Amino acid sequence: MTVPTRPVVELTGVTKTYGDVVALRCAGVVIRRGELLAVVGPSGSGKSTMLNIMGTLDRPSAGTVRIDGHDVGRLGDRELSALRAGTIGFVFQQFHLAPGVPALDNVADGLLYSGRTRAERRRLAERAMRRVGLGHRLHHEPHRLSGGEKQRVAIARAVLGDPPLLLADEPTGALDSRSGAVVMELLHQLHEAGTTVVVITHDRDIAGSLPREVRLRDGGIEHDSDPAPDPESVPGAALPAARLPGEAVR
Ligand code: ADP
Ligand code: MG
Q: What pTM does this model have?
């Protein structure tokens, strides 16, 4: 049995609407540190909306989003950027690598605003590239990499600063099944090393292979294979979050 730990993501009464389209309505989702879970559902069911809200890339129309204990709605843009930079790594279906830029620099640029020197960024980037098995592709530009290799570069960039939370939106959606399996294996390894990993997918086989599955339909949660216990009952849940620079004392 796994020991429940402090939540890294808590969505409470969250809705997101676009005009009269309800993209997401989610009474409660709690993701604890160390989890590996799938968010699955047909196209248009609200998966990306949920991920963007969990990733603080988008704010909900209503409800409360807590990331690593911080109430996102109470943070200004600067605190939010700091929280995001220190806590969350992102991987997208279409890789989002800069064309014409060697893989190592694509990864290193993930720390562009971290205050680290270029040499330090590149040293960390090289380590991350080796971690994803691409130590032999440091100087390849994206057009010389396979789809699977591009996604591994994107993963290296996402985990460069060792974020506790990795959010992946259809990470295998643009890959053949073999490259997809390699990417999933890598996500499993990151999870085993301690990262909380949320994988969005419309692939039911992938979803079924992960320890927890949250199924969305028409913006609502149709099924959660592991509904979280009452957060108040989780040891450590009541610990105050570390304060961000500039964040008001609550
Ligand atoms: P999924 O990722 O599961 O395919 P999305 O979260 O992208 O679904 O979309 C959920 C619903 O919200 C869809 O009906 C989509 O058309 C709508 N939607 C998403 N983003 C926007 C937007 N920026 N403007 C208007 N409607 C949107
Ligand atoms: Mg989507």
A: 0.90
User: Which atom, in ligand 1's list, is nearest to the CA of 200?
Assistant: 2
Q: Which amino acid is at 48?
A: S
Write out the residue range of the structural domain in which residue 119 sits.
Answer: 9-233
Q: Are strands 165-169 and 7-18 parallel, antiparallel or unpaired?
A: unpaired
- Within a domain: 3: no
Task: Look at residue 96 and tell me if it is in a domain.
Answer: yes
pLDDT of residue 161: 87
To test the pocket of ligand 1, the residue of 49, 214, 222 to mutate (highest count of ligand atoms within 8 Å of its CB) is: 49
Q: Is there a domain that residue 83 lies in?
A: yes
Give me the CATH number covering residue 126.
3.40.50.300
pLDDT along the chain (250 residues), means of 10: 76 96 93 96 95 96 96 94 93 96 95 86 95 96 97 96 95 95 95 96 91 95 78 49 60
pLDDT at residue 6 in the model: 84
38 Cβ contact list (under 8 Å, min separation 6): 199, 200, 201, 206, 207, 208, 210, 212, 213, 214
The total number of structural domains that make up the chain = 1
**Residue 57 lies inside a defined structural domain of this protein:** yes
Cα of 17 vs centre of ligand 1, distance in Å, is 9
The rounded distance, in Å, linking the Cα atoms of 46 and 43 is: 8
18 CA to middle of ligand 2, Å? 15
Q: From the CA of 21, how far away is ligand 1's center (Å)? A: 9
